[in-house]
């Protein structure tokens, strides 16, 4: 029995006709297929897919969907693959495709591309999640890339352990919805009054929506946090610290001298936590965002900074390593046939794709 159910191919809304035509494919693969068809040559090959880096695999179900919907004869293909979220080692085979090469030659660019993209996002997210444990991580990078990548990236982050994503598109593949906080823009829309904006948010949002308010609009996170907590009481789930890396929060100015005072720093978090606790607002959680990387989260956790959740954005798209995937023909008509340095590497963890 398969370890778990894979995503249905229909969920990906693939442009099947364009993919089959080679519109998104490196031209040399398209032309290679044209040669085989013109020569009436239909070699049965085994294609092996791997990456050279330790990673957490993403994009597998999407790659399978491309093969199922966009190959010219899925019934003639035998595919074995790992699962999204699997931890993989360097050079480990993550997928094999066996069948007439002309049936899927035009798809290589597509399936290795989605594996590379989703594995990068999933691995970066997993590293952040591991660094933050047991704290929550919120996936907030939608504004840092093209909107078309949101669905797959959100799913990769979800599989990697992120507890929330910022758009409905990012959450759509597992039937959830986006989460968010009271943003700076609505605070500005209410004349820069964070308390009023938070009150209006709490008034008009459904009761199951957590009220988490940004509190750095006036660069006075301690006093703003207290003001919002006093106004909302138990309605306030949390405050979000998002001080710019070019600013020093007012509460930190008198404490400068032995640490980097800019942005969201440990001292600022402690100042907010102590102020909230002093007025019995211990239920109010502290979410931090703005430039958080794996390294910065580790530093916060190792120092015991009282953070309840991390909002992470653009760093999840940066390369912590190279997650390129390679596909090689390693068998021809059941016999070894690959370029020097590429041989069939069986993997007992692969499962047959139905």
- Under the CATH scheme, the architecture of the largest domain is Alpha-Beta Barrel
Q: What is the mean pLDDT?
A: 94
CATH topology of the largest domain: TIM Barrel
Per the principal axes of the C-alpha atoms, what is the gross shape? elongated
Q: Which percent bin holds the helix content?
A: 25-40%
User: How many DSSP H or I helices?
Assistant: 12
Number of beta strands: 14
CATH class descriptor name of the largest domain: Alpha Beta
Listing every helix as H and every strand as E from the N terminus to the C terminus, the arrangement reads HHEEHEEEHHEHEHHHEHEHEHEEEE
Q: How large a portion of the residues is in β-strands, by DSSP E?
A: 15-25%
* Alpha-beta content class: alpha/beta
Largest sheet: 6 strands, antiparallel
Radius of gyration: 25 Å
What low-confidence regions span 5 or more consecutive residues with pLDDT below 50? none
Per CATH, the superfamily of the largest domain is Aldolase class I
Distance between the termini: 11 Å
